[in-house]
Amino acid sequence: MNIDCPGGPETPCNDHGTCQDGSLGNGTCTCQPKFTGVDCSTCVEGWAGDECDIGELLWYFYAINI
């Protein structure tokens, strides 16, 4: 049985993790550092931005100065 990961076959794990799919996998994602969630779409605490590459404190100062 082939089990796809969240994000679909084109962007498994939202391109932020490794998909455990295929005949031996279970359809889960192993997220890259700074990403979390079942589909690796959420930044871990302390990080922000599309690529989770902005420290939360820097993001705060950026947001209040827009």
Chart the SSEs and their pairings.
Elements: E1 17-20, E2 28-31, E3 35-36, E4 42-43, E5 47-48, E6 54-55, H1 56-64
Antiparallel strand pairs: 1-2, 3-4, 5-6
Q: Would you kindly provide a written description of the structure presented here, covering whatever features stand out?
A:
The chain is α+β, with helices and mostly antiparallel strands and 66 residues long. It has a single domain, classed as Laminin, CATH 2.10.25. It contains 1 helix and 6 strands. It has one helix at residues 56-64, and strands at residues 17-20, 28-31, 35-36, 42-43, 47-48, 54-55. The strands form 3 sheets. Strands 1-2 form a two-stranded antiparallel ribbon. A hairpin with a 5-residue loop joins strand 3 and strand 4.
Short key terms for the protein model shown above:
Laminin, 6 strands, two-stranded antiparallel ribbon, alpha+beta, 66 residues, two-stranded antiparallel sheet, 1 helix
The biggest beta sheet reads: 2 strands, antiparallel
| CATH-scheme architecture | Ribbon
State the end-to-end CA separation: 50 Å
User: Roughly how much helix do the residues carry, as a percent range?
Assistant: 10-25%
Overall average residue pLDDT: 84
Brief sketch in words of this structure:
The chain is α+β, with helices and mostly antiparallel strands and 66 residues long. The protein is 14% helix and 24% strand.
